Amino acid sequence: MSEIIKAYLITFGWAIVGSVSMGLGIIIALKMFTMSTREVDEWKLIREGNMPMAIILASVVISLGIVIAAAVHP
């Protein structure tokens, strides 16, 4: 029974590490993207319904998720 509990704790630990890494990574990546495009207000464009900008920001988030998933995978 203790091996099952140990496996659950390891899985839960990796889930926490992945969640925290993804959260911090998204914040850092979006700040860097915003800093690299100073002349463009991305969030204003998205609120106005600009789909290409929404797709670009979504691709930044998805690519970051793929990188973090590869790094966290045991």
Task: Give a nutshell description of this structure.
With 74 residues, the chain is an all-alpha fold. It is 85% helix and 0% strand. The chain has helices spanning 2-36, 42-47, 51-72.
Describe the 3D structure.
α1 (2-36) packs antiparallel against α3. The protein has three helices and no strands. Helix content is 85%, strand content 0%. The protein has helices at residues 2-36, 42-47, 51-72. With 74 residues, it is mostly helical.
Largest sheet: none
What low-confidence regions span 5 or more consecutive residues with pLDDT below 50?
A: none
Shape: elongated
Give the tally of β-strands.
0
N-to-C SSE series? HHH
Strand content range: under 5%
- How large is the radius of gyration? 17 Å
